[in-house]
Amino acid sequence: MYDDIAFNVQNPRPGVIINKPDGPDVYEGVPKCYELIRLYRNHVTAANLYAVILGNKTALTGGSGKVLDSGPNDNIFIYYTDHGAAGIIGMPEGDYVYANDLVDVLKQKHEAKSYKDMVFYLESCESGSMFEGLLPNNISIYATTAANATENSWGTYCPGFNPGPPAGYTTCLGDLYSISWMEDCSDIKDLRKETFEQQYEAVRKRTRNTTEGLGSHVTQYGNLNQANDLLFSYMGSNDNSTSYTQSESSPSLLGSIINQHDADLLHFLLRSRNAPIGSDERHEAREELRAEVDRRKRIDGNVDKIRWLLFGHESNLKNFRPQSQSLVDDWSCFKTLVRTYEKYCGSLSNYGMQYTRVFANMCNAGVTKERMIAASTQTCS
């Protein structure tokens, strides 16, 4: 985990992390193998993630040295959450995790016969694009994603919403999909009796059907036969007694939610409102809010101008490819165009990641690195 929450100066409960309004501390006792520490901010990277999954200690940089040292009889459960967009998921440091690279790592793990079965839960915007058209159904991996390949995921338990976090919080406590599956695994459920298919159905309904009628489509990929497996066989059990009875109750519909791309804006807005009038904290929060709004306007303008320079007024580079087809044919081109933009125009940021589909469609339309450099330099120099 990227250990930057519990003791953050903006955490109203130092040393404590909650993920629901009346929830317990979920930080205490959690092992932190690749945590954020002052001297080693570059440990939480895509390269380290791949090394950990593959059990490759020699490829690690920093951290505890722990890897997924699994064997052919082991079941593996992976849960990953960050900002994301078409074909990528974010990392706190360094390059993005690209869909083809992640799936290639999973294929290598399978070829090495270092697991029996694997379940992968992924939370991010457009998270389905990480597996759509890429994850085979014959490598014993079952995956579910917070959203399909083309839609955003949502934050929930946000300040000012119902239900919301306790007083003093200026951030949402969780993501709609993640909250839904975690609460489905709560103490009222017997993980020895519930299957992944049952959890998928419960999470799918709750993630799509909020009280506001918003939400995303939780999607399944890979070997769907594994959905018949019991949660217990991957997650362990929350009770070892034989007197445990299965509850038929389901968590209630969640209330107000917010598009993940706008969660930062909500945070900055609430900080500026809540800080004492005339204080340095209020001034700082307003500056952060202004900088974020300006950043978004700049990114919108940059991408629009590059698109116009390459294709003219009639271009529509946000088109979706048919379902079951991966985002892009040439992943090397896709990475090159994303990196070229960031080299000349600056980081996409969590907000600007939404434009990666535009870059993918540029590749699908035959845009070369040279043309992208020319358009980027003309736009951003």
UniProtKB/TrEMBL annotation:
Pfam family, one: Peptidase_C13
InterPro entries given in the database record: AE, Legum_prodom, Legumain_prodom_sf, Peptidase_C13
Keyword check for Ion transport: no
GO CC term (a single one): vacuole
GO terms of biological process kind: proteolysis involved in protein catabolic process; vacuolar protein processing
Keyword S-adenosyl-L-methionine: no
Legumain prodomain domain sequence ranges: 288-380
Positions annotated as active site in the UniProt record: 83, 125
One GO molecular-function entry: cysteine-type endopeptidase activity
Keywords: Hydrolase, Protease, Signal, Thiol protease
Record-stated family: Belongs to the peptidase C13 family.
UniProt-recorded name of the protein: Legumain prodomain domain-containing protein
Upper taxonomic lineage: Eukaryota, Viridiplantae, Streptophyta, Embryophyta, Tracheophyta
